[in-house]
Design goal:
Elements (H helix, E strand, L loop, with lengths): L18 H54 L5 H5 L2 E2 L10 E3 L4 E7 L4 E9 L6 H9 L5 E8 L11 E3 H10 L1 H6 L1 E2 L13 E5 L2 H7 L2 H72 L9
Length: 295
């Protein structure tokens, strides 16, 4: 019997610690680590900016609300003259504002005849929210304040009477049910003074609107607005004068600087000319004297 021998087969075992295999997988690991590091840096930066904006926006809203309270709810202000109790407490040191959110503040006043109280709600821009702040850059919104006055039911009859700008009045009439059911837009009456054309009156009764909007009320409102306009015009005129003076001073300073530069330039040229003249004189003195004789 013949037995055939096959040549031995050589097999190669690839070890996991093969250096060639390391070189092929290393670039992939480096790229993945760089990508994850970039993502971590971006996320960390966003969180830092978000936290900074949160605290700065929170302080901004608080300062705005406190500025409003300092102007309208302190001693000698309009609310102090009309109400005996201001703020949310009963003591003198009670806080004036109640903070319900980072951008919502409330003010309460009571202690007036025929009136239960007044509630003012300030809804400010969400400056503490970074996403809302960025959104406000695209679609700007305004700070709003809403006043609610609660009258005693036995002291006066119920009356529906809003006064607003024309666009706002149309929106209010569609939004509030009382205005839809009981009131309507009033046309300007003939033969008497009325509100400006930019405003609209919504009332359920012409007589009520006429009793509320009297000539004395209009004159008082016009006097206040005229005083405010005069003050604004004076401030604008003052700002214009200051701007003109600053521009004039700047122009004078520029002219003075140009003259100084021109004088410096002229003096430098004069110095150069004098030096050239002195140099020529020195060279002339240093040359040997020669006499010419005729044969």
């Amino acid at each position: 019997m013949r037995t055939s021998r096959e040549p031995p087969k050589v097999t190669e075992n690839v070890c996991p610690n093969d250096p060639d295999r390391k070189t092929t997988s290393k670039p992939q690991n480096v790229a993945g680590s760089k990508k994850s590091l970039t993502v971590e840096i971006v996320c960390g930066s966003f969180l830092i900016v978000f936290a900074i904006n949160y605290f700065t926006g929170k302080r901004e809203n608080e300062n705005l609300a406190l500025a409003w309270a300092a102007k309208f709810a302190t001693k000698g202000s309009i609310f102090e003259k009309n109400f005996s109790l201001l703020g949310v407490g009963e003591g003198e040191d009670s806080p004036l504002l109640l903070k319900e959110g980072q951008n919502v503040f409330k003010f309460y006043a009571s202690g007036r005849r025929y009136c239960q109280g007044l509630l003012a709600t300030m809804e400010l821009k969400s400056s503490h929210d970074l996403i809302s702040r960025l959104f406000n850059l695209v679609l700007p919104c305004k700070d709003e304040i809403n006043f609610e006055v609660y009258m005693n039911d036995e002291s006066m009859d119920r009356v529906v009477f809003p006064l607003a700008k024309k666009k706002a009045a149309k929106g209010m009439q569609k939004e509030f049910r009382d205005l839809q059911r009981f009131a309507g837009l009033m046309a300007n009456p003939c033969g008497r003074k009325w509100v400006v054309d930019e405003l609209s009156v919504i009332s359920e009764s012409k007589e009520v609107a006429g009793d509320l909007i009297t000539e004395a009320v209009l004159e008082q409102a016009r006097s206040k607005t005229d005083a405010a306009r005069v003050k604004a015009a004076q401030e604008a005129h003052k700002e214009l004068q200051n701007a003109r003076q600053e521009a004039l001073q700047k122009k004078r300073a520029e002219r003075k600087k140009m003259l100084e530069e021109a004088e410096a330039k002229l003096s430098a040229e004069a110095i150069r000319k004098k030096e050239a003249k002195d140099r020529a004189r020195q060279m002339k003195k240093g040359m040997p004297r020669m006499k010419m004789t005729r044969a």
